[in-house]
Amino acid sequence: MNIGELLGAMVQTGMSPSSGERMKNSLGGGNVMDSLSGMLGKSTGQGSAGGIGDLLSSALGGGKSSSGGGIGDMLSSMMGGAGQAVGGNRNLAVGGLGALIGALLGGGGKSLKGAVGGGLMALLGAMALKALKGNGEQNQQVPVGLLEPQTDTEKKELEQSSELILMAMMNAIKSDGQVDQNELNRITSKFQELGVDDETQNHLINQLQQPMETEKLIAAAQGQPQLAAQIYAASLLAIEVDTQAEKDYLDQLAANMGLSPQVTGRIHEMVGLQPA
Do residues 161 and 259 make contact, with C-beta atoms less than 8 angstroms apart? Predict the structure, then answer.
């Protein structure tokens, strides 16, 4: 089973009723999505915004970065020392981001699950980078997923991180103890609509019925603030956060992974939620 396809399938199921809107918000909101929609041939809307919105707009070939010098300068400007450390000229995961945006705008198809999963990883990487940079951290590493992997080692790192992100989303979904048969039926129906094969469906449904794996997530994130921020952001995208159990879970997850309230607050703001 391809982990990217698993992630893409989970994204396209909708995870929670608010997941799509939260991803759109993290991309810059309505104006930016209108602009990106136009680039993808779906509308002629225009818009602009800072941060991740400008990042994606430049990467997709529409608009200019705030640094005025294309992807290389944009990366250097956004990431500071991290951008310079990678030479400032490696490509963002543009294909995946385009597929994710297309899916959020109602496009995409059965063959794009892997690309959508890659787009989610790139989005989470950008969110983590922005949240931690706002916390005053200098010389950050570039989060896994934001740039296209160039070597076998980088591809393996991306696969491992993707597995943790999938685990994080499923863990969050289970945090209120209410993965009932109706929800399983909804997810299964969406998987079938997307053409997810039986083996993959059975794997994902089985995982949703297993005990929570919070300790594994916490252990994996120790000493890796970028990964911790990605795990937290993925968890926030996967659930409504409308029960006390979900709120408590997110609080405990953040604290045990070493994320400050300032960092988690910025992630909440990116997705359009007030900090818990």
Answer: no
195/99 Cα distance (integer angstroms):
17
Domain that holds residue 212: 3-271
Specify the number of domains making up the chain. Answer: 1
Name the DSSP letter for residue 187. H
Residue 204 domain-assigned (yes or no): yes
Quick check: helix, strand or coil at residue 107? coil
pLDDT digits (tens, 9 = 90+) for 206-218: 888 899 999 999 9
Cα gap 83→243, rounded to integer Å: 39
pLDDT, tens digit, for every residue of 25-64?
A: 887 765 555 554 554 454 333 333 344 444 444 444 443 3
User: Distance between CA atoms of 255 and 261, rounded to whole angstroms?
Assistant: 8
For the CA atoms of 121, 127, 128, 129, what is the dihedral angle to 10 degrees? 110
The span from the CA of 78 to the CA of 68, in Å, is 12
Give Cα separations from 254 to 217, 219, 263 (angstroms): 11, 12, 9
Angstrom distance (rounded) from CA 112 to CA 4: 10
Q: What value, to the nearest 5°, has the Cα angle with vertex 132 and ends 124 and 6?
A: 15
Q: Helices in 139-243 by DSSP H: which ranges?
A: 152-173, 181-194, 198-208, 214-221, 225-238
Distance CA 222, CA 218 (A): 6
> Is residue 276 in some structural domain?
no
